[in-house]
Specification:
about 350 residues, alpha/beta, Rossmann fold, Alpha-Beta Plaits, 2 domains, eight-stranded mixed sheet, binds iron/sulfur cluster
């Protein structure tokens, strides 16, 4: 049976702005039924790396917040810390970046909570019936939320072809160790040329996997539990992820984490996707290149698989080509959709309802 995906284009007129249309889209997709009754509701976002301008404008997020509050819910804005060293790799930098990018309470109307804590170590291991994983680590405050509205900027991605709602769920809700296990099957590695032997990583490592010998740190792969903490605590930025997973495996692992992210709140989750400023790479970069597609519109659904399928179909239709395969020719983006469908996250068959 097809899922319903609600769609609005970017036309607007006096009395019916794009913000008004966003509210109408959310109500049509069932936000009143999926949040409310005092539910602590995670509004899962990507606040944008500092320097990036393609992330969703906070004024749209305010409308999401208002709709949740009107339904009786208690919304908070949230994301998890990044795997790599950047402007969102710990909660302090993350919140400062979010506010710099406009996600202050005065604009968005809701408090900010970093879902996996100060250094990305606050996670709940959620049991799942995956083909690769039997449990996945999800940012604790997302796992503990009663309801979730996932707000996504649909764009290209170098490992997944496109980054949509499934990526916002799977990669975006995973704690740092979950992100590491999606990208790599081996432990991080120290580049000795940058190592000063300061020992910060040794003090931080929860499994005693790092030793400093002759003023250079080395990681024992046998002892490493893959928490990824050493990557972000190193003051020299000389501990690196071994980016060794193939795109197909990253996509499979990602959707298994997405399954964990919605676990326990499948009936209290809603997904909203902005197909605008479709940049070739993800918003984790501190810049965004020119769009690879014309702007398409805004979509919402209670089915994350149907929503991503509809977004990619509309991009291809508007572009006249598949800009994601053109930009990332070695990546088959359909893997994330077929794997998610196999896992029961949703269906690729949908009915588009235009508002
Ligand atoms: S990833 Fe975690 S467990 Fe592994 S070496 Fe680094 S700090 Fe230690
Ligand atoms: S924290 Fe970085 S610089 Fe310090 S010992 Fe570890 S790898 Fe070397």
């Amino acid at each position: 049976m097809p899922s319903t995906v609600w769609f609005t284009d970017l036309s607007a007129r006096p009395g019916n702005s794009l913000i008004d249309k966003t509210g109408a889209l959310l109500r049509a997709a069932g936000i009143r039924e999926r949040t409310g009754r005092g539910a602590l509701t995670a509004v899962k976002l990507h606040f944008g790396e500092k320097g990036n301008t393609a992330f969703i404008r906070p004024i749209f997020v305010r409308k999401v917040v208002e709709e949740i509050a009107a339904a009786g819910g208690r919304p908070f804005l949230t994301d998890t810390n990044t795997l790599y060293v950047g402007t969102r790799s710990n909660a302090v930098d993350h919140l400062n970046t979010a506010i710099t990018n406009g996600f202050a309470w005065a604009v968005a109307g809701a408090p900010l909570v970093v879902a996996d804590g100060l250094r990305g170590e606050s996670a709940v291991r959620v049991p799942i019936a995956g083909k690769i994983f039997r449990e996945v680590p999800i940012g604790a405050e997302i796992a503990h939320a009663d309801a979730m509205v996932v707000v996504t900027h649909f764009k290209g991605h170098e490992l997944c072809g496109f980054g949509g709602t499934l990526k916002n769920l799977g990669m975006g809700c995973a704690s740092r160790s979950g992100k590491l296990s999606q990208h790599s099957s081996v432990s991080p590695a120290v580049d000795p040329s940058g190592c000063t032997g300061c020992g910060t990583c040794v003090a931080h490592c929860p499994s005693g996997a790092i030793a400093v010998v002759a003023a250079k740190a080395a990681i024992s792969p046998e002892s490493c539990i893959g928490c990824a903490g050493c990557i972000v605590v190193c003051p020299e930025g000389t501990v690196n992820v071994n980016w060794n997973e193939a795109s197909s495996t990253v996509q499979r692992k990602m959707v298994e984490h997405a399954l964990g992210a919605v676990s326990g709140k499948r009936s209290s989750s809603l997904f909203l996707s902005f197909v605008t400023q479709v940049s070739p790479y993800c918003d984790c970069y501190g810049h965004n290149d020119r769009p690879v597609s014309p702007d398409v519109g805004i979509l919402a659904s209670d089915d994350p698989v149907a929503l991503d399928q509809a977004c990619v179909d509309l991009v291809i239709r508007a572009s006249g080509i598949d800009p994601f395969r053109a930009t990332h020719p070695s990546v088959d983006w359909s893997i994330q959709l077929s794997c998610a469908e196999e896992l029961g996250l949703g269906t690729r068959t949908y009915r588009l309802e235009t508002l």
